[in-house]
């Protein structure tokens, strides 16, 4: 295992050093002889990313780079809807598992038709088969099937 120093991670020599430790330990000696170009840094970041992803889903339960990106987008979206951070994090984590196992159920908080903050209303309730005007706060956080659902996300991996 290696320890990653986030604060200095983007310094060119740090990236090269980390890559060298992961790939070729002997390359560390020549790292400080020449400065790295932006292209070299970009290539090394991709190399590090692919090296790290080999230890992630589907080879383990750890989130891979794509899942982390989607996780962050969803977390911000759900927090913007007024859900506390701890609750939003638990919900988004369950959505990661939903995606991994190709569960077709959705959460109202992901829907384009969900209106309000705290006092929820469905803008497509007739198509979705919802009879009440307001939705209970717990209801919008439950995985369910809805014929009126339309994804609010524009991410390639997250579609409704």
Count every helix, treating DSSP H or I runs of 4 or more residues as helices: 5
Succession of helices and strands? HHHHEEHE
Strand segment count: 3
What class, by secondary structure content? mainly alpha
Helix content: 40-55%
| Total domains | 2
Give a quick account of the main beta sheet: strands, pairing sense, barrel closure.
3 strands, antiparallel
Q: For the record, give the distance between the C-alpha atoms at the N and C termini, rounded to a whole number.
A: 38 Å
Q: Given the C-alpha coordinates, what overall shape results?
A: elongated
Which regions have little confidence, pLDDT < 50, spanning 5+ residues? 1-32, 156-160
Taking all Cα atoms into account, the compactness measure Rg is: 21 Å
Mean pLDDT: 76
Strand order of the largest sheet: 1-2-3
Tell me the strand percentage band.
under 5%
Which characteristics define this entry?
160 residues; three-stranded antiparallel sheet; 5 helices; 3 strands; disordered N terminus; disordered C terminus
Would you give an account of this structure?
With 160 residues, the chain is mainly α. The protein has two domains: 12-53, no CATH class; 65-141, no CATH class. It has five helices and three strands. The chain has helices at 12-23, 38-53, 65-80, 85-100, 125-128; strands at 114-115, 120-122, 134-135. A three-stranded antiparallel sheet has the order 1-2-3, with no helix packed on it. The longest helix has 16 residues, at 38-53. The two termini are 38 Å apart. 14% of the residues are buried. Mean pLDDT is 76; it is low at 1-32 and 156-160.
